From TrEMBL:
Family: Belongs to the UDP-glycosyltransferase family.
Residue span, Glycosyltransferase N-terminal domain: 13-234
Keywords tagged on the record: Transferase
MF term (GO), any: UDP-glucosyltransferase activity
SUPFAM superfamilies xrefs: UDP-Glycosyltransferase/glycogen phosphorylase
Organism field: Solanum tuberosum
Gene3D superfamilies the record matches: Glycogen Phosphorylase B (3.40.50.2000)
Protein name: UDP-glucose:glucosyltransferase
InterPro entries with a match to the protein in the record: Glyco_transf_N, UDP_glucos_trans
GO BP term, pick one: carbohydrate derivative metabolic process
Domain of life (superkingdom): Eukaryota
Length: 334
């Protein structure tokens, strides 16, 4: 539970409720810092294992203004506490985690009753949180951790599959469409009480992790055709608060390269490429003849050594969950 601090009576309190994934918590923290700079008091609510990660991303100057509130999920035999996060969660347990999170509703209600925040900012993946907040007469707004382009494209595909997305530069290949349709099919199976809280068709406010400088036309499309009041809160760029030796090695290496000469390859913190896919990426990088940084991840506990015929990959034995691969070393066979 959040620690007690003395605060002015005029301080506005905001409870932030991100989805249980690092890629969602980081954008929430970015918004939390901006609000804290404007003298808001922030309660960040998540599971202990996620808060352990979040605490390392909060600079000391926010120690009092951003408070961590523990979210304890119901105990399920197949979901021990170290799996109360999507990070390193086995794929077959994702549904179980979602189930446990929905079972948390009564506890969220108690947290709201105790903290009495003036506003709840919830993750778009947790629509039910708005109903819980409304039961306490607390206004709630959603935060989208991805950008307007992806959101608008998939929203049209899900809700108006017959409509043509008006921006032809954004499209999926046939193989990608098959995977998307499978994803959308799962999305349609969401329980009824997880739907959007559209009150008499009124326009919904949505905070979005983007900027008009980057996505102006897509933001306008969301506003005009999806009946949303979009408030851009800036892209989810993290502040650097560490001086890790590995990070500095990477920065020093980048400093030796020409501008716009290096490709960053990453498929997210929860997507694990197959051996065949990794080989294809490696061959593509080799043929492109560019400098690159490749972030490779494997499920926790699956220590592997990749053996691919690529002359420009700097490879370490993957005893950790994540390694940075760069073409620091040339002509290395493995």
């Amino acid at each position: 539970m959040a620690k007690q601090v003395t605060e002015p009576l005029s301080t506005l309190r905001v409870l932030m409720f991100p989805f249980l994934a690092y890629g969602h918590i980081s954008p929430f923290l970015n918004v939390a810092k901006k609000l804290a700079d404007r003298e808001f008091l922030i309660y960040l609510c998540s599971t202990p294992i996620n808060l352990k990660y979040a605490s390392k991303k909060i600079p000391e100057k926010y120690a009092d203004s951003i408070q961590l509130v523990e979210l304890h999920l119901p105990e399920l035999p197949e979901l021990p506490p170290h799996y109360h996060t999507t990070n390193d969660l086995p794929p077959h347990l994702h549904h179980t985690l979602q189930k446990a999170l929905k079972m948390f509703k009564p506890n969220l209600s108690k947290i709201l009753q105790n903290l009495k925040p003036d506003l709840v900012i919830y993750d778009i993946l947790q629509q039910w949180a708005e109903r819980v907040a409304n039961e306490h007469n607390i206004p709630a707004v959603k935060l989208l951790t991805s950008g307007a382009t992806v959101f608008s494209y998939f929203t049209i595909s899900l809700n108006k599959p017959g409509d043509v997305f008006p921006f032809p530069e954004i499209y999926l290949r046939k193989s990608e469409q098959v995977k998307m349709n499978e994803t959308l099919k799962c999305a349609k199976e969401i329980e009824p009480d997880d739907g959007d809280c559209q009150a008499d068709g009124n326009r919904q406010i949505m905070l979005m992790s983007t900027s008009r400088i980057i996505e102006a036309k897509y933001i306008d499309y969301c506003t005009e055709f999806l009946n949303l009041k979009v408030i851009p809160v800036g892209p989810p760029v993290q502040d650097s608060i560490t001086n890790d030796a590995d990070d500095m090695e990477l920065i020093d290496w980048l400093g030796t390269k020409d501008e716009n000469s290096t490709v960053f390859v990453s498929f997210g913190s929860e997507y694990f490429l197959s051996k065949e896919d990794m080989e294809e990426v490696a061959f593509g990088l080799e043929l492109s003849n560019v400098n690159f940084i490749w972030v490779a991840r494997f499920p926790k506990g699956e220590s592997k050594i990749l053996k691919m015929h690529c002359q420009k990959v700097f490879l370490k034995e993957l005893e950790k969950g994540e390694e940075f691969w760069t073409n620091l070393h040339h002509n290395q066979e493995f």
